[in-house]
Amino acid sequence: MSELDLEIARWSTHLRRNPALADADVEEMEAHLRDRVADLVDRGLDEDEAFLIAVKRMGNVDAIAQEFAREHAERLWKQLVPPPAAPPGVPGAELAVVLALAAGAALVSRAVAEAFAPERAALCASLLVGPFLGAYFAWKRALSTDVTAVLVAVLVVTGTVVNSYPFDADDATLVLVILHLPVVVWFVVGVAYAGGDWRSHQQRMHLVRFTGEWVVYYTLLALGGGVLVGLTMAAFAAIDVDASRVLVEWVLPLGAAGAVLVAAWLVEAKQAVIENIAPVLTRVFTPLTILMLAAVLVAFAARPGLVAADRDLLILMAAILVLVLGLLLYSVSARDPLEPPRLADTLQLVLVALAIAVDAVVLVAMVARIAEFGPSPNKVAALGLNLVILVNLARSAWLTLGFLRRTRPFADLERWQTTYLPAYPAWAAVVALVLPPVFAFS
Fold first, then answer.
1. By the 8 A CB rule, do 378 and 171 touch?
2. Where are the bilayer-spanning segments (predicted)?
3. Would you state the pLDDT for residue 73?
4. Is the four-CA dihedral 286, 287, 292, 296 of positive or negative sign?
5. Whole-angstrom distance, CA of residue 166 vs CA of residue 123
6. Residue 308 and residue 311: Cα distance in Å, rounded?
7. Residue 310: its pLDDT value, please?
8. What one-character-per-residue DSSP string does 270-284 give?
């Protein structure tokens, strides 16, 4: 391809990101652009100059997309009902595979819940559902046999190790494993999602986008399923039939496991539509989270001894920092790296700076508690998590500041997030596999 063809291809790719524009629309606009470029070249301009002038005369591509959206708004609504995607010549194959895997995940999870104690079933939950989700991506990405074998081996070894630990129902390390093991499993599934190309920064960022969008869809499915179960329970109660046991012990667990696959399929089927929700979510929740963190810091300043004295508060602060981290990742993944700095980027820097301040206060309190009462599994796990998050936030703040000052491209911040991504499953693996024996499974 010539340099002109490459520039036009980039321009067309940017247009195709907007679901309001069909392929035929983009092709028509590309044809107009090429005609204008050819006309300017005939007048004596070189191709680079002609392309820049032609694009300028075509107008802002976002404005063009918005105009198409107004004229063809019905397209957006029609896209909300995804057609069953399938390989050529196999109608409905993907949906059939998803439903079969979802049913398998639900039934296996229920069988384990029936056969083992609740705490052991909770421990195995992610190990039971994760392989079915990984199998879906392995099938869809045509994952190689070698990579598939490695991922299966990792899950088998991990499951064997954690299930060999002699946990009691009230062990703190058991709770830590239950909370951290899904992160490890999600990383393994993420490698399948990336088609085995985990070294690619672009594939890692795709996984970040997928994760955020999957959370949106799963939450919607969970809310809808909860309402449906509640209405069903009320309807049976009205006729003096107690259906609560069946609904709570069977329908909800089966639905929760199966929805993992269904949500993933919905994200895969409708990536273009849900990506429009990401910027809206980040712009709404970023200022709200800023206000929350500012209020927390004021409360800490008013009662300086509160943080060190309240263990539950430290755990809550760690959860808030995880929320901030997720918001940061989602913001970075949803942003067009070619856009200049905007108010949203300034708010993101404020958010990260406040999160660093909160993290610093929490870290000081944690170190003080460990020095006074000694280490424990919960303290070590929380301390490590806060340190992992702090490193990311500090570097992100520096790169965001450079972007706002126009000394660094936004791509540096995006690349840092994808480079640092393996740190989270790595620490989760330490907590799930190393801390229990270190603390004698207490």
1. no
2. 145-162, 174-195, 215-239, 246-268, 280-301, 313-334, 346-368, 380-404, 424-441
3. 45
4. positive
5. 12
6. 7
7. 61
8. THHHHTTHHHHHHHH
